[in-house]
Amino acid sequence: MRDGLPVGKLRPDLLESLFASYHIHDPAVIIGPKVGEDAAVIDLGDSYLVAKTDPITFATEEIGWYLVCVNGNDIATMGAEPRWLLTTLLLPEDRTSDALVRDIFSQIVSACEQFNITLCGGHTEITHGLDRPIVVGQMLGQVEKDRLITSSGVQVGDDILLTKGIAVEATALIARECEDALLSRDYSPQYIARAKQYLKDPGISVLKEAMIASRVGGVHAMHDPTEGGLGTGLHELARCSHVGMIVRAGRIRVFPECSCLCREFGVDPMGAIASGALLIAADPSRSSEIIDTLACNDIHCSAIGRAVEEGKGLFFEEGQERYPIPIFETDQIAKIFQ
């Protein structure tokens, strides 16, 4: 039996106890550390600065692309435009070549160019004790004050929308990190290539859909489910807004490659890292317009549930049956790397 905490995010109750012990004295900090909020918000006077930091720890292939998209997602969920990126690259000793460094840098630059983000600087080093590269992004964005969206904004009665489906990032990760194992299990190179391409198609970035939904209006909250998958993302969103949720499990779109690869490795798609999906809490009078506008931009979106009073809990609904929405302390994808 292992001592210590499990791999993955810290427990929400532990995080909340840490945050409760710290008081922010700077009135310019509009949103500080809070479970479920995707980024910090700082008052610049005429607008808000939105700031986020996130590491990439599972991926090794295309790690620079993951870095830009994952950090940009958390800026976009606040209704802000990702603008500036700083990076920290920690590279393993005795395993790092010029070619590796150039490849990661090229990936970061390519993603920044695609999403109109400026790479401003950062830090790179060879680090003792690592067996793979670890990259950390620090992303900054900007939003007009009246267009800020927070994870704490869900209102009772809101429709809960889900874009694309699950689990885009998990599908790409499994295909990229487990290619040899998949080939040995008679998966074709074409199938693996298709699953690998999930990184960019349908893609792990939610920047486009977040911007579209914000422009349509009626959005009360957005959240980017990452580690712990959709199940954990729903819990984070509900906890942050002090609401419950009833979610129709049959309306959750699971990509076929995701379902197949997760089953192959005993991974629950509901708890597998889900970057590429976007949760939107919207006024019911505007949700159809959001769904239709996203569809016109070739982005699938569906209403999967509704927000209810906090005391009613978080449940999946299938027919007449209800059962609790699971929360995953450790992302299901970690099973593959243990």
Please describe what this structure looks like.
This protein has helices spanning 12-20, 63-76, 98-114, 168-177, 179-184, 189-196, 207-216, 229-241, 256-264, 284-296, 334-337; strands at residues 29-31, 40-43, 47-56, 81-92, 118-127, 134-144, 159-163, 219-223, 243-248, 279-282, 301-309, 314-318, 321-324. It has 338 residues and is an alpha+beta fold. The protein has 2 domains: 12-147, PurM-like, N-terminal domain (60s Ribosomal Protein L30, Chain: A, 2-Layer Sandwich); 151-337, Phosphoribosyl-aminoimidazole Synthetase, Chain A, domain 2. The model has no long low-confidence stretch (mean pLDDT 93).
User: What's the β-strand tally?
Assistant: 13
Q: Quick one: CATH superfamily of the largest domain?
A: PurM-like C-terminal domain
Unreliable sequence segments: none
Number of domains: 2
Instruction: Tell me the distance between the termini.
Output: 14 Å
Which strand order does the major sheet show? 8-10-7-11-9-12-13
- According to CATH, the fold-level topology of the largest domain is Phosphoribosyl-aminoimidazole Synthetase, Chain A, domain 2
- Main β-sheet, in a few words? 7 strands, mixed
Question: What's the helix-strand series?
Answer: HEEEHEHEEEHHHHEHEHEHEEEH
> Helical proportion?
25-40%
Radius of gyration from CA coordinates = 19 Å
Architecture per CATH nomenclature, i.e. the level-2 architecture of the largest domain: Alpha-Beta Complex
Just give the CATH class of the largest domain: Alpha Beta
Strand residues, percent: 25-35%
Shape: globular
Mean pLDDT: 93
Number of helices: 11
Give the class from helix and strand content and strand pairing.
alpha+beta
